TrEMBL record:
Membrane topology: Multi-pass membrane protein
Entry's Gene Ontology cellular component terms: membrane
Primary localization class, coarse: membrane
Superkingdom, natural source: Bacteria
Protein's recorded name: Magnesium transporter
Keyword field contains Transmembrane: yes
SMART domains named among the record's database cross-references: MgtE_N
Pfam families hit by this protein: CBS (PF00571), MgtE (PF01769), MgtE_N (PF03448)
UniProt source species: Marinomonas aquiplantarum
Length: 443
C-alpha cells in the first residue's frame, strides 16, 4: 500500500491541472492514506488537491491529518467551507481535532451536534489527551442484567460494532455489572438468565487511566475490547483493540520525533520560519553544551600545545563514551516506558551496568592503548588513553542509568532530553580524564 500512496503523491504533484483524474484516484484510497499524501506535498498544491476531494470525505481526512497540517489547511478555508465541513461532525472527531481549532470553530461544531454527541464531547473533554476517558468508544452492545438469553440473541441481530465479542451488562442505574462473551451466549439455553453467563475474568478500565496503561491492560486480557467506567462504576463506553494499536503507533512516532527535539504533529511542509524556530531551540541547547565541553578543553590548552597527539586522539575518547552511554540510555528509557524500573531494582541495575562498563572499558582500553602505541610509538600515551577510556565508559554507564531516571522523576521525557545531557556529561568526563591524565603523566 505504501507504494500506492507514493504514486498518489506523485500524481498530486505532477497532475495538479487534472482535477478529474485526481478526484478519481483519491476515491480509491482510505482517509488516512489521503491525509498522508496531502501532508507530503507543498502547501499551495495541497490546497488545490483539497478542492478535488468530495465534501462527504473531507472531515474524515481532516481528522486523520497531523495537528500542524490541519491548522495550516484550516487557515486557507473560508467560514462557509468550515461550516459545511463541520455539519456532520461527531464527538469523537471533534475531540480528535479540538486542540487544532480556535474556540469559535469548536463552538460552531458543537452547535451542529445533536444532544447525545454533545454530551459525549463534554464527557470526554474533561480528560487530558493521554487519558483513556477522552477516547472512549460509545458504540457497544449494552443490555440489562435482568434479560434472558433469547432477548440477548435478538440484540445481536442488530448491527454489531467492530471489535465486538461480548455484551456488557448494567443495572437500572447504568452501573457496570459484568460482561458475557458471545461463545457462552451461543451455547446457552434461550430461557436462561444472561446474568448466569457473566465472565468473572472480564476486568474494567477506569476512565482516568493513561492510554498506554489501558493498552497494556487490554493486551493482557486477550479480549478485543474492555469496558470503561467512572469512579462510581457507571459504564461510559469501551476501549478496543483499534484504539490500543493507534495509541502504540502514536507513542512510537512521538518517541522517534522527540529524539531529534521535534513534535510528532509537525508538518513536512510547515512554513520555513516556524520550522527554523522549532529546530533552532534545540540547536541552541546543543551549542551551549558544546561550549561547555570546549570550556573544559580550554583548561588544558598548554597541555595540548605540548602534546599534539592528545588533540588527535580526543575524538576517540568522546566517541567511545558517547556510544556506550547511548546504549545504556536506550535500555533504561525502554525499561521506564514498560514500568520495569523501580526503586527496588535500580541499585542492582546500576551495579550490572557498571560491571558491563568496566568489562568493556578494560577490553577496549587494551585495544586502543595498543593501537595508540603502534601509531605514535609512545607507551605512556597508550596508557593515558586506555585509562581515559575506562573512566569515560564507566561514567557513560553511570550517566546512562541515572540521567533518564532523574528526568523521569522530574516529569521530563528522558527520550527527548536524555541524549543531549548524556553527550555533554560523557564528553566532559572523557576530555577531563584524558587531558588531566595527559598533564600528569606526559609533561
Amino acid at each position: 500500500m505504501q507504494s500506492q500512496v507514493t504514486q498518489l503523491i506523485e500524481h498530486l504533484i505532477h497532475d495538479e491541472h487534472s482535477p478529474n483524474s485526481i478526484s478519481q484516484m483519491m476515491s480509491e484510497f482510505s482517509p488516512d492514506d489521503i491525509a498522508l499524501a496531502l501532508e507530503s506535498i507543498p502547501l499551495d498544491q495541497r490546497r488545490q488537491a483539497w478542492e478535488n476531494i468530495k465534501q462527504a470525505n473531507r472531515l474524515d481526512i481532516l481528522v486523520e491529518m497531523r495537528g500542524e497540517s490541519r491548522q495550516l489547511l484550516l487557515k486557507e478555508l473560508d467560514d462557509s467551507e468550515i461550516e459545511n465541513l463541520f455539519a456532520d461532525v461527531d464527538a469523537a472527531d471533534l475531540l480528535e481535532i479540538t486542540d487544532s481549532l480556535p474556540d469559535r470553530l469548536v463552538d460552531l461544531a458543537l452547535k451542529q451536534m445533536d444532544n447525545k454527541q454533545r454530551e459525549y464531547y463534554q464527557q470526554g473533554i474533561v480528560y487530558e489527551d493521554d487519558i483513556v476517558g477522552r477516547w472512549i468508544d460509545h458504540e457497544l452492545l449494552i443490555a440489562s442484567q435482568s434479560i434472558r438469553v433469547a432477548e440477548a440473541m435478538r440484540l445481536l441481530k442488530k448491527a454489531t460494532p467492530n471489535y465486538t465479542d461480548m455484551i456488557y451488562l448494567v443495572n437500572r442505574t447504568g452501573r457496570w455489572v459484568g460482561c458475557v462473551k458471545f461463545d457462552k451466549l451461543f451455547k446457552a439455553q434461550e430461557h436462561e438468565p444472561i446474568s448466569n453467563l457473566i465472565d468473572e475474568e472480564c476486568s474494567v478500565i477506569q476512565a482516568d487511566t493513561s492510554l498506554s496503561k489501558a493498552a497494556e491492560q487490554l493486551e493482557k486480557s486477550t479480549l478485543s475490547a474492555l469496558p470503561v467506567v467512572d469512579s462510581n462504576l457507571i459504564l461510559l463506553g469501551r476501549f478496543h483493540a483499534g484504539l490500543a494499536l493507534e495509541t502504540l503507533r502514536l507513542e512510537n512516532e512521538a518517541q522517534q520525533m522527540s529524539t531529534a527535539g521535534l513534535n510528532e504533529e509537525s508538518d513536512l511542509f510547515a512554513p520555513v520560519k516556524r520550522s527554523a524556530a522549532t529546530r533552532g531551540i534545540w540547536l541552541g541547547i546543543n551549542l551551549l553544551t558544546a561550549f561547555l565541553a570546549s570550556a573544559f578543553i580550554g583548561l588544558f590548552e598548554a597541555t595540548l600545545q605540548q602534546v599534539v597527539a592528545l588533540a588527535v586522539l580526543m575524538p576517540v575518547v568522546a566517541s567511545m563514551g558517547g556510544i556506550a552511554g547511548s546504549q545504556t540510555l536506550t535500555l533504561i528509557v525502554r525499561g521506564l516506558a514498560l514500568g520495569q524500573i523501580t526503586r527496588s531494582n535500580l541499585k542492582s541495575l546500576l551495579s550490572k551496568e557498571l560491571k558491563v562498563g568496566w568489562l568493556n572499558g578494560i577490553v577496549w582500553a587494551i585495544i586502543i592503548g595498543l593501537v595508540t602505541y603502534w601509531w605514535f610509538n609512545n607507551s605512556m600515551l597508550g596508557a593515558v588513553i586506555g585509562l581515559a577510556i575506562i573512566v569515560n565508559i564507566l561514567m557513560a554507564a553511570l550517566s546512562g542509568v541515572l540521567i533518564p531516571v532523574l528526568l523521569d522523576k522530574l516529569r521530563i521525557d528522558p527520550a527527548l532530553s536524555g541524549s543531549v545531557i548524556l553527550t555533554t556529561v560523557t564528553d566532559i568526563a572523557g576530555f577531563v580524564a584524558f587531558l588531566g591524565l595527559g598533564t600528569l603523566l606526559l609533561l
